[in-house]
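Field log, afternoon session.

UNIT: design team B
ACTIVITY: writing a sequence onto a fixed backbone
BACKBONE:
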């Protein structure tokens, strides 16, 4: 799964140029070192043919949900079932998004002690990238609108297998525009855009247990305890 990530960049021009965003005004960017479920997150989507940066709550609620109290928000959507599960299949066709990040966390179990070690995974050059996501819009009977999102996950590549058996779907930059394209609704075409990132494109290092608390959102969360491990 993917349950925590970072977006430490806050420079709007750099951000807009990297993701070809038409409108960045709706969402104020601030450095984030421990983004957690149920929080509002930056997300890129298409609206009226324009690529915009928006704010969505992490944990998808489908538009058809009747009772929020009885609906569990889904922070992740498995690539194997997103085309069939009612929770996701409509969003896959019509409401796709990119969730920008520059790293994510996973907890690796130490085979000797059994302890879970928080691990930070990133690109070797620490560049920004985009998770493939889905979003939806839920409206209450009195007109309250809640916009939510989820991150798609897939089986781990060889690099991630030593840390966890799954990983977030990181979009190749050349596939980002096609993923957002509202005119594309063919499921097989959309799924073909989600390919595992090459293991050589990832690096990782163990970090402070400060990240264990979602209330902690400081640089301490990405403080290295061990040298970085590069992809193989």
């Amino acid at each position: 799964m993917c349950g925590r990530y970072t977006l430490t960049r806050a420079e709007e021009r750099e951000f807009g140029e990297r993701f070809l965003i038409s409108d960045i005004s709706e969402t104020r960017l601030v450095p984030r070192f421990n983004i957690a479920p149920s929080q509002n997150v930056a997300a890129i989507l298409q609206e009226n043919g324009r690529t915009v940066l928006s704010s969505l709550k992490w944990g998808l609620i489908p538009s058809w949900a009747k009772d929020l109290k009885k609906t569990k928000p889904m922070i992740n959507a498995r690539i194997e079932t997103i085309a069939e599960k009612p929770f996701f299949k409509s969003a896959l066709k019509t409401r796709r998004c990119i969730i920008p990040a520059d790293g994510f966390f996973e907890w690796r179990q130490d085979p000797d002690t059994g302890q879970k070690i928080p691990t930070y995974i990133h690109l070797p050059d620490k560049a920004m990238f985009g998770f493939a996501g889905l979003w939806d819009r839920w409206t209450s009977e009195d007109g309250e609108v809640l916009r939510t999102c989820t991150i798609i996950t897939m089986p781990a590549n060889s690099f991630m297998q030593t840390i966890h058996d799954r990983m977030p779907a990181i979009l190749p930059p050349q596939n980002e525009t096609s993923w957002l394209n509202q005119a594309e609704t063919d499921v097989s075409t959309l799924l073909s855009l989600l390919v595992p990132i090459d293991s050589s494109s990832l690096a990782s290092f163990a970090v402070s247990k400060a990240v264990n608390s979602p209330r902690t959102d400081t640089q301490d969360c990405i403080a290295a305890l061990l040298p970085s491990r590069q992809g193989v």
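LOG NOTE: The chain has a mean pLDDT of 92.
NEXT ACTIVITY: expression trials, pending approval
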